[in-house]
Each structure stands twice: as C-alpha cells, then as structure tokens.
Amino acid sequence: MKIFKTTVLLVAGLFLGTNSYSQNFDSLETAFAQSYSDEYIGDYSKAIDDLKKVYDENSYETNLRLGWLTYMAGLFTESLSFYQKAIGLKPMSIEAKLGYVFPASATGKWELVKKQYSDILSIDPQNNTANYRLGSIYYGNEDFTTAIKYFEKVVNLYPFDHDALLMYAWSNLKIGKTKEAEVLFHKVLLNTPDDSSALEGIGLIKK
After folding, report:
1. In whole angstroms, how far apart are CA 154 and each of 105, 128, 168, 174?
2. Which fold has domain 125-207?
3. Measured between alpha carbons, how far apart are the two ends of the chain, in Å?
4. Does the pLDDT value for residue 5 go beyond 60?
5. In sequence order, what are the residues at sequence separation of 6 or more whose Cβ sits closer than 8 angstroms to the Cβ of residue 148?
6. 86 vs 77: CA distance, rounded Å
7. Which region among 14-18, 34-38, 99-103, 179-183 has the lowest average model confidence (pLDDT)?
8. Please, how many CA atoms are within 13 Å of residue 168, restricted to the half-sphere of its CB?
C-alpha cells in the first residue's frame, strides 16, 4: 500500500511539473510574440519590457533577443551584457557573436569586435561574414597584407561576389599587385557595369 501511494505521488508530481513547464512556455511565447509586434511599430522600450517580465538569465533565446532590442534602443552597454550572457550559455553560437559586434562597433570597441570575428572563425573558418568584416577592419587600419588574406577566402568561396571582389582588388592594388588588381577590377565590372570604384582603380593602374 505504501509503495502504491508513493507511486501515485510521483506520477502526480510529474504531471504537475509538465503542466508548469507548459505554462512557462505559454507565457514566454506570448511575451516573444508581443515583443515582435512592439518592435514592428518601433516601440523598442515596450518590446524590451515585454521580455523582461518573463526574463530568465538562463534562457539563451531571451538574452539573445534582449541583446538585439536593447541595441536597437541605443542601450549599447546593456546590449553587450545580454549578448555576452547568450554567448556564455551557448559558446558555439555564431549568431550571438555576430549580434555582439553590433553594440561593440557602436561603442568603438574594435578589439572586442575583432575577437568575436576571430572566435567565429575558430568555429567556422569559412564563415563569409566574419572573413569579410575582419578584412574590412584590417583594410581600414591600412594593414592591407592581412586584409587580403580574409578577402581572398571570401572570393574563393564566392568568386562572383561584388563586395568581396572589389575589396580584394583594392587590397591587391594597395600592396602593389597591379596585374592581379586589374583583373579583379574587371571582374567587378562584369558583376556591376560602370562600378565607379572599380573604374577608379583601373584608372589609377593605367596612369
């Protein structure tokens, strides 16, 4: 009889736990749906409040979403914190790292931006976004030798991509590889006829 009562209590507890779990999902889904609606009309403060009412620091999805919403609201420090929590919860997440770079860039934390892109490439060496943006950062710092390595990866993956071809061409030109640069500029023109930047590059080579 005692065993029977114990079994009944365990089963009852299981169903109560399942019901609670379902209720938590219901409230979370409602909060997310409302946050999307408020974001759609540009009310980021309301969208943030929608999620903070059901906030759980151990929820990857909630931290990720709040990272985005606080970034859009201009709350960059808070955004960095939410994205960092999401990364801590899912260290292999590329989407969280890509999200992190938005507030980091907005606050001029370029070393942190570079770290996130480098971390992404340690997980996914062929990641197009990370390679291209790292190349752009090094190009902006006039480290053309490093920049060219990243642009070359993107062009190998996407041989007819306009932006990658253009930056690869300019990087080659900057380090004195004029023949390679000219070929690449002409490939840009195949993609985008009369591209002003490509024509400018060819003009400099022809001088």
Report:
1. 22, 6, 9, 18
2. 1.25.40
3. 99
4. no
5. 135, 168, 171, 172, 175
6. 15
7. 14-18
8. 27
Q: Which amino acid is at 14?
A: L
CB 71 within 8 A of CB 79: yes
pLDDT of residue 73: 98
pLDDT digit string (tens) for 127-164? 999 999 999 999 999 999 999 999 999 999 999 999 99
- Could you report the per-residue pLDDT of 36-91, keeping only the tens digit for each? 999 999 999 999 999 999 999 999 999 999 999 999 999 999 999 999 999 999 99
Q: Where are the domains of the chain?
A: 1-109, 125-207
Q: What angle do CA 52, 70, 42 make, to 5 degrees?
A: 95
Q: Are 117 and 101 in contact (CB under 8 A)?
A: yes
Following DSSP, what letter does each residue of 14-32 receive, concatenated?
HHHHHHHHHHHHHHHHHHH
- Report the predicted TM-score, pTM, of the whole model to 2 decimal places: 0.85
**In a 10 Å sphere around its CB, with 0-12 CB exposed, 13-18 middle and 19+ buried, how is residue 32 labelled?**
middle
DSSP string computed for 28-70: HHHHHHHHHHHHHTT-HHHHHHHHHTT--TT-HHHHHHHHHHH
Q: Which residues, 6+ apart, have CB-to-CB distance to 9 below 8 Å?
A: none
Fold category of 1-109 in CATH: 1.25.40
